[in-house]
Amino acid sequence: MADERTAPSVAADDALTAVAERPESADTATGWPALLAAPYGLRLMAVSAGIGLHAFNEVAIAPVLPLAMEALGGVTLLPLIYAAFFTLVIAGGLSAAPLRRRFGARRALMLAGLLYCAGILLQVSAPSAPLLLAGRAVQGLADGWIVALCYTLIADLFPSRLVPRVFSTEAVVWAMAAILGPFAGGLVVQHLGWRPAFAVSLPLLALFFLAMPFALPRDGRAKVPIVPHRLLPPRLFGFSSTVGRGSWLLLLMTGGQCVSTVFLAYTLHHRLQLSPVEVGLVLITLSLSWSVTAIPIGGIRTVERRQAILRIGPLSQVLGAALVANGLYFGFLPLVLAGQALNGAAFAMVFGSASQAIIEDADPEHRMTTSALLPSVETGGYVIGASFLGGIGPLFNLPARLAAEPPAPQIFALWGVTMLMAAVSLVAARGVRLKPPGAGP
Predict the structure, then answer these.
(1) 250-280, pLDDT tens digit by residue?
(2) SS3 letters across 84-132
(3) Rama region for 234: left / alpha / beta (φ>0; ψ in -120 to 50; rest)
(4) Rounded to whole angstroms, how far apart are CA atoms 401 and 80?
(5) Distance between CA 339 and CA 422 in Å, rounded?
(6) Cα three-residue angle 163-166-169, rounded to 5 degrees
(7) Which of 29, 112, 235, 361 has the greatest count of CB atoms below 10 A from its CB?
């Protein structure tokens, strides 16, 4: 029997929700064997392949783009190519729900996958920097569609009792992408050149195309949506509901982390004299910690314990930022590593539970749109934070001050921004309420 949790999907492709809902009443198993067994194992593989494409595409191309733009004489376009990619990822998230309503989940994902391939082809064969930028933008749109559509499927393909483990799995996928992506991209560049490196995600794309048709049933006829599509669903970024406070929580935590995203590698290299390889190892500490912490959290069965962990998650980010700042100021690497580990744990404590809480609290007729926008909310936090820091960096000559000797107090000012945003998100977290499995909206 279908519940209100899947009402919006019925309007788009009711065959999918009917298949997804039947197994929920068959058993109540919540462990990892239940998630990996049929039919959920194949569904998990398909969703993870889609989300993995997004994660891998963000990090694997990082060592490739500067070399490619330099070879094509377009180094001045480097900031624009990043901006274009992330802007189109967000646009994909905003348009994913109407795309699914129009074509159904399966056809929409296949369309997005083909567009992703077209973006790769444009980048591999680009004769000029503007065409490379165009290919990156096309891939960004497809990327945004794929990850947003996969998020909309989580509530449809898995019963609520297994959703925490699904989000834990996706945290592991992100960590693996953060570790393997730059390594794979750099390896291909070194041995084959920058053009083949843009196709480094093809094996994962092949898995996506192989798994998705079998994991999702054929789409039914496109139907008229229950309600007209809204660009932003109601209550998003409000102050009186789980949807509103949860979206602020995700935005603030990702926005605050941008201080480390923009300045940590530079400061480690110039203040602690670390080599590029050593800097990379420090940076992946966050992803490893996120992954390792997310697995046991996903196995917690009681809503009360997961609720308590979510609400103290931002405190871990506050402490992590403080440790990173002190480690950089005093030139003591173990403090930086400890701070990175606490930051990763903070995201593991918050993101899976908050995402599930937002989806389940959304109005039934807007649940698909809300689910699709979660990746855009997270990406938006990084974009807003990086844009702000990119603007004030030259204004206050921050790079030179961060590398100065004796150490400048700007280190504490910058990571103090992370602490402040995490403190505000701690308030937002108190308004995010998890529901027991099977509870109505």
Answers:
(1) 999 999 998 887 788 778 888 888 886 687 7
(2) HHHHHHHHHHHHHHHHHHHHCHHHHHHHHHHHHHHHHHHHHHCCCHHHH
(3) beta
(4) 26
(5) 14
(6) 155
(7) 112
